[in-house]
Amino acid sequence: MDSGRTTVYSGGLKLSADQAIERSGYLGTHRSLANIRWYEYMFFTLGTLAALITDGLTIARLVKIGGSLSNPEFAYGILILVHSVFLLLFLFTGLLYQRITDIIAFFVSAVLLTIYVVVHYFYRKGQTSQAQDTQPEIRLARLIITIVFNICFIPLSIVVIKDYKRDEFSQRLFGAFTEQRRPLRIYSTFDCVMRLSTMLSISSLLLNLYNYTGYQVADTIFLSIGIPVVFIWLGVGIGMARLESFILMCIFYFLSLFQLGFLGYCLSTTIIRSIDVSKQTPTTTIATSTLSSTTTVKPPADLLPIFGVLYVCISANLLAHITSIIFGFWCTRQFGKGLQDKLFNSKIDKWIRERF
């Protein structure tokens, strides 16, 4: 590639080929910092601030309730923290490697996180009296901040996605023909849906802390084994594509079957448990010795919002998991088409290939 050739990018940047792309280090081939536009830096700054502020308020809320695993407040706190970490990961890789799929995943996950925060706020406001409520100002502040940041994300996401449609990064690596850039698009989508499935799997596993199924031993086993298996599955999938290994491909699909089994277990137990809860009498009137004295007892509604979150997590996770399996197969069809030489050339990639 001619290092003297220059290209004028939107925003007035005029960069040579060597300045536009960096090929060394632990991140592999990626965009240079000089190639990232000012509105992309703004996008990353706002996303980071949103995650830090939201997580800070969430942690303050969790500290207030004492970290009791039996408290349903913990479910929403854990969901928010897990989603925030993956949101930053989507944003970082989307900007560094100019991936439309990661930016879309960031925006969709941000909207999903906002829905969690909104539903949680109004549910707790309706279920708890003002005298019994604890730190309602934290939930309100988190709600306002989440909505404000998401309003800012909408125009920035549109601008970035429209800019990324020109596909400058992959053109630098594979040329102007669409067919030559196809392997990179397939890998980018595969990597994105795998991380999305991992995020949702962890959320579903953590919700098992609350024994909503009634099988406490099984839930504890799933939690202790499930999260490491999910991360192993993610690592094997990434290694399969980057090392172009058919052995890792077999391991990837073998582990995928376990995840499908877990999702089936979660879905069936959630349906059964939600039906049992819905059959409970809304109110029970207990009469005492005198006709004028009655007591009305309401069954606990703590588990009700958990079911709604679980249905969303499991459904989205099932869709993302099946999609990752399909794109994983398409990735294997792209082996030997130049991804290793042009993209997967970080120090870690080279170290693993030299030894294995």
Automatic annotation (TrEMBL):
PANTHER family: TRANSMEMBRANE PROTEIN. Residues 28-159 form the DUF7789 domain. InterPro entries: DUF7789 (IPR056691). This is DUF7789 domain-containing protein. Pfam families: DUF7789 (PF25044). The chain crosses the membrane at residues 41-62, 74-96, 103-123, 143-164, 184-209, 221-239, 246-272, 306-330. Keywords: Membrane, Transmembrane, Transmembrane helix.
